[in-house]
């Protein structure tokens, strides 16, 4: 079967190239408390040895962020060369500012725009994370989840849909909201000085066919690199 690849920019994640005509990259994630350095290093080692080319760790509090430099240094000392991705949620802007050494050690940041605050606070927090990523030249995955979708955007699209003579289904509007959220966040990141080579988009929904539909729409409407999360 001949697969026609979309033309996209190429992201550089430490030694790993992603996008364009580069091979599809396999990423996995740890399920250890990241602050448990020994357990996290052991699990990253197992994942890397099993073929994971990127490994994502949860960075949800001060202890987790403070552990990042030690984790990366131990992996390097043990000869485990695998880029580490930091998964941030509600407090990523605080952690990235407070722990610059950890921010430098991480190879990529994962941001969920639905979890960075509301209104002006959202814009400020998002801007802080993008500015730090730009400062350290880090790529960012903007990950939109159905469970944490921007409710202001979703409500606006539902209101517009309700006024139509032939409204679309709830699921159709939800899929469109996912796509628009991802694209709006990517556009916002670029307006803050981030290059397309630094931006990776993902959308995740609980039902597989819905997720396929959203990725198809996203692929048709942009040339950003896409991350498929299952």
Structural write-up:
The chain is an alpha/beta fold and 230 residues long. The chain has 8 helices and 9 strands.
Structure described in brief:
The protein is of the alpha/beta class.
Alpha-beta classification: alpha/beta
Q: Would you report the number of β strands?
A: 9
Helix content: 40-55%
Counting H and I runs of at least 4 residues, what is the number of helices?
Answer: 8
Radius of gyration: 18 Å
Strand order of the largest sheet: 3-4-5-6-7-8-9
Largest sheet: 7 strands, parallel
Mean pLDDT: 95
Residue runs with pLDDT of under 50 for 5 or more positions: none
How large a portion of the residues is in β-strands, by DSSP E? Answer: 15-25%
Assign an overall shape.
Answer: globular
Terminus-to-terminus distance: 23 Å
Helix/strand order? EEEHEHEHHEHEHHEHE
Annotate the secondary structure layout.
Elements: E1 10-13, E2 16-19, E3 27-29, H1 37-49, E4 54-58, H2 62-77, E5 84-87, H3 92-98, H4 100-105, E6 108-111, H5 119-135, E7 140-145, H6 151-162, H7 170-191, E8 199-204, H8 208-221, E9 225-226
Parallel strand pairs: 3-4, 4-5, 5-6, 6-7, 7-8, 8-9
Antiparallel strand pairs: 1-2
Helix pairs in contact: 1-2, 3-5, 6-7, 7-8
Write out key terms for the chains shown.
about 230 residues, about 45% helix, 7-stranded parallel β-sheet, two-stranded antiparallel sheet, alpha/beta, about 15% strand
């Amino acid at each position: 079967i001949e697969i026609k690849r979309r033309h996209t920019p190429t992201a550089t994640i430490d030694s790993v190239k992603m996008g364009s005509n580069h091979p599809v990259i396999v990423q996995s994630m740890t399920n250890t408390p990241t602050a448990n350095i020994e357990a996290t290093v052991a699990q990253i080692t197992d994942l890397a040895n099993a073929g994971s080319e990127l490994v994502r760790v949860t960075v949800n509090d001060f202890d987790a962020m403070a552990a990042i430099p030690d984790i990366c240094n131990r992996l390097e000392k043990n000869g485990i060369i695998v880029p580490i991705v930091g998964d941030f949620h509600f407090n990523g802007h605080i952690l990235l500012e407070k722990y610059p050494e950890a921010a430098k050690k991480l190879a990529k940041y994962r941001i969920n725009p639905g979890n960075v605050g509301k209104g002006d606070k959202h814009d400020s927090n998002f801007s802080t994370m993008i500015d730090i990523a730009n400062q350290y030249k880090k790529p960012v995955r903007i990950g939109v989840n159905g469970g944490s979708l921007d409710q202001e955007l979703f409500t606006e699209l539902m209101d517009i849909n309700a006024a139509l003579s032939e409204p679309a289904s709830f699921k159709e509007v939800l899929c469109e909201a996912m796509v628009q959220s991802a694209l709006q966040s990517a556009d916002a990141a670029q307006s803050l000085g981030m290059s397309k080579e630094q931006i990776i988009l993902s959308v995740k929904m609980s039902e597989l066919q819905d997720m396929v539909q959203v990725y198809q729409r996203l692929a048709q409407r942009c040339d950003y690199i896409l991350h498929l999360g299952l």
